[in-house]
Amino acid sequence: MDELLGEFIAETREMMDALQGEIVAWEADPADRARLDAIFRFVHTVKGNCGFFDFPQLAALSHAAEDALADVRSGQRKPDPALVDAVLAIIDRVAAMMAMIEAGTPIEDGDDSALIDALAPGGATVERADEGNAALNAPQAAVSSGAAAAQRSVRIPVGLMDSLMSAVSDMVLARNETARRLSAAEVQPEARTSFDRLSAILADVREHVTRMRMQRLDPLFRNIPRVVRDLAQELDRQVLVDIDPGDVELDREIIEMIRDPLMHIVRNAVDHGIEPPSARLAAGKRETGILSVCASQSGNQVEIQITDDGKGIDAERLVARAVAAGIVGEAEGRGMPREMAFALMFEPGLSTAHSVTAVSGRGVGMDVVRANVEKAGGTIAISSTPGAGTAITLRLPMTLSIMPALTIRQAGQTFAIPRAVVEEIIRPEELGVALTELGQGCIAHHRGMRLPCVALGEVLGLGNSSAPRGDSALVIVKLNQTDHFAIAVDRVLDHQELVVKPLSRAVLNVGLYCGSSLLDDGQPLLMLDAGSIARAAGIDFTQPHVGDAAEERGHAHSRPGLPVMLFTGLDRRLRAIRMDVVRRVETFSRADLRRDVDPPQAVIGDAILPLAGLEGGRIPRGDVSILRLHDGHGEAGLVVREVLDIATMDGEIARSRPGSAIEGTAMVNGRSVELVNAYHLFATLGCVGDPAKMPVCRLPESDPWFANFLRPLVESAGYRVVGEGDADKADLAFAPDPGVKKRKSAKAANTVWLRDTADGEGGDGRSVYRYDRLALLAALHAVRKGAVA
Amino acid sequence: MILTIVVATIAGSEVALPADRIDCVIELGALTPVPRAPAAIAGLATLRSRVLTVIDTSVALGLAPDRTSSGGTGGKAVVIRHGGHDYALCVDAVRDVKQAAGEVEPLSVPVGDGWQRVARGMIATGASHLLLIDPDKLIKMQELEMIT
Fold first, then answer.
1. Interchain pair A507, B34: CB under 8 A
2. Least crowded by CB within 10 Å, which of A2, A48, A425, A777?
3. Which residues, other chains included, contact A341 with Cβ-Cβ below 8 Å and sequence gap of 6+?
4. Are residues A141 and A178 in the same domain?
5. How many angstroms separate the CA atoms of A678 and B61, rounded?
6. Contacts of B84 in chain A (CB under 8 A)
7. Given CB atoms, is A159 within the 8 Å cutoff of chain B?
8. CATH (domain of B36)
């Protein structure tokens, strides 16, 4: 609403500025028809606009002036100086009111009835406020005083803004080139300092300009209720529209690109989704259908979801039509999973082909919708439940001109792929992916999925290998919910924010590229269009490429995304910790930190927390942030430099060796993140709950192997360790195996004998090879369960 | 109207280009090849942070064997802005920039298929006549070629 109000003020002010001359001229010659019309238009517009806002005084004034002027225009009344004065007095008063509205102050109660009465033929003459045109200057005066209260806005031609943006993008590239030359040449340190300053300023400018191009989604969404209302009337539907543009901003160019697709989807939802009232009643639903369009933002992506509670998509009919149109074979059609069937909607030649209505069939099919969304660098996904409704989700990048991208190398040439479609990168050394060659083709088996694999070298005609080799990296691309495939490339280089430039038509026509950019060394690079590459490689996404449904479900079950909290440690490294173990984030004063004990402690409230995370960096001045962690028994604190975000780690975690302080590394939002091993953290702090309740393990203290190698494992499994001489009752003991015959009691409820050789069973199955970590852990676990229960 | 022309050598022949269409003459650096592009697209180059589409003029005119988007370094080129994009047309050499000695005249002799498609006519320069090339026609040809 604020934005609307701003527009109203700006428009009124513009008209008022233009009106100044007219008023003076009209005053001189009240019979001047052209002047009269201009003034009439002004009061008419003000009156009309007032309808949107709650300004009753303004509406009453402009309405009265409009009526009087309408009489004059229709010839029912002769303009006389008294009328001119009365109208001018009203315009002055409107100007004063606008100034108050703009400054955000409530409109002062003035006696407007006198002004209105003066309009009547023969009405009393009024004194014009402040005489002369002082009142017309009032807005300016009010602005200078109210500038702090209300930010003024100006209108700028879109073209100018676009050229500013491209100039700034060029500036970034020129900066990069200068940086490269500077690093090659020997320059004075001062020159480098000023260059750094320049770079910092440029980064600011870039951010401001990017923000300038951002537009809220409200104006885009505002048309929807009207479109739906008209359509519902035409089709005899009852639809309730629920619009939530959120607090989301999007590059205006992208907004333009999705305007038509969005309207098409909305029309589709009313036309094909929401049933007529009678059908809804018969289906046990309320007569009025609900269509909701809402937007939300996550990271640098914007999600727009269009949901209806209509009849849903008839997957079988879609498949039947696809089979009839020859898009899929009959056999594939029969067992096609629903998600895949929905994707058929985007096939050219299928969309609503035989049910074209005046409404949705306006020459745009869903294939065009998808093409437009993809052109904006976005993706589209459909989900639907028969009888319950359909949800269509558009995911869009926030800005067009600067795009996060993955750079890769193929046959010595660098290319980029938009980050938005990259699901995962599998490096050659990683396990868990198997390549199967099928004639000239290739399939990658990865986490229960069969992915068609495209050799980039082959699609581009670079390099000779027909199938991806085992040593190439795989980039898993997700075009939408169902269309995944792998691109084999020579090497994955880096994540970069690229200033994307449009391609000339001659290059665009090649059909494999969607943009170009410049590398830091000034060399142009081509941005690959993942969708086109799949098509060029002849991948048929209508063929099931998921291992099988059960396998897929099992996979989904076993590997949900891991919710983590992202933070930087004191050593400024980016880390993550499982969300489950974080109780809350607290700050405490440096003074409450005790470093003279081991482990260091912090006093928070009445709790004393052992602290981790102090190594590798200085403690910042002032307040220190800690993550308060719990393991169900005890608490510990992890000192952090800054808490960044909550994220989901859904990529592959590259595991470190068991027992390291870092559980592994994974990519989160394009950055490599270390996952803190919470288990290790608690284990090393030794804060595992109440020692009295812990199971006890007896280890021979005389043997250094037990003290150095076994003890950490035992302690990390939650045991309190006692020595041979201790009187405590032990739940478990480990002892070197002297051989079956020579074993003596190790003074414990259970004893595990450790032998030195890997083979054999030590005679009776009660001994374990001392480096058989799994068997040791199993024993610890079994006893602990028994001891605790 | 007397044109200002740029006299350049393309595929060994001296020709004229309208100077008002030419942004600048550059020495091409390393080109980024465009895999799978038609032979006449020599690659991409940069000019002051603009990306140029480089057209191998000889190949486009059918006067040189296909050199398939080879990358490599390109030599001299004239830069033309066409349809909002920057193109660089490779030339062997740029000889001169001067005022034409007369109006553009229609071609009086057949000049060969390749030249015919991009010629705007001929133009007098002192003693001789030169073929006047329309660079936009040449670029348009490239744009259309991809579609078919």
1. yes
2. A2
3. A313, A315, A316, A318, A319, A322
4. no
5. 68
6. 502
7. no
8. 2.40.50.180
**How many structural domains are present in chain B?**
1
DSSP A671-729: EEEEEE-HHHHHHHHT--S-GGGS-EEE--TT-HHIIIIIHHHHHHTTPEEE-TT--S-
CB contact under 8 A, A510 and B86: no
Task: Tell me the sheet residues that pair with A769.
Answer: A755
Contact (Cβ atoms closer than 8 angstroms) between residue A547 and residue A449: yes
Residue B47's closest chain A neighbor by CA?
A: A522
Q: List the domain range (segments joined by +) for residue B109.
A: 4-147
A535, A622: one domain: no
Q: List the one residue out of A556, A561, A683 whose CA is nearest residue A629.
A: A683
Q: Mean pLDDT of successive 10-residue segments in chain A (789 residues)?
A: 72 76 74 80 78 76 83 79 80 82 72 78 53 41 41 76 81 79 82 89 84 83 86 88 85 85 89 89 89 80 88 84 78 75 74 44 65 76 86 82 83 89 77 68 76 88 61 80 83 82 81 84 86 82 48 38 80 82 77 76 74 76 79 80 76 73 78 81 67 78 80 78 81 82 77 79 71 82 69
Residues A652 and A718 in one domain: no
Domain harbouring A124, CATH code: 1.20.120.160
Q: How many CA atoms lie within 13 A of B142 on its CB side?
A: 31
Question: In chain A, what residues touch B38 (CB-CB under 8 Å)?
Answer: 510
Q: Which of B51, B82, B146 sits opposite A509 (nearest CB)?
A: B146
SS3 B145: helix
Give the count of Cβ contacts less than 8 A between chain A and B.
81
Nearest CA in chain A to B53: A504
Residue A363 lies in a domain: yes
Q: Give me the count of residues in chain A.
A: 789
Q: Which of residues 461-480 of A touch B (CB under 8 A)?
A: 461-462
Does the residue A635 lie in any domain? yes
Q: How far is A498 from chain B, CA to nearest CA, in Å?
A: 13
Phi then psi dihedrals of residue A467, to 5 deg:
-115, 155
Spell out which chain B residues touch chain A, with contact meaning CB-CB distance below 8 angstroms: 30, 32-38, 41, 44-46, 48-51, 53, 55, 71, 82-87, 139, 142-143, 146-147
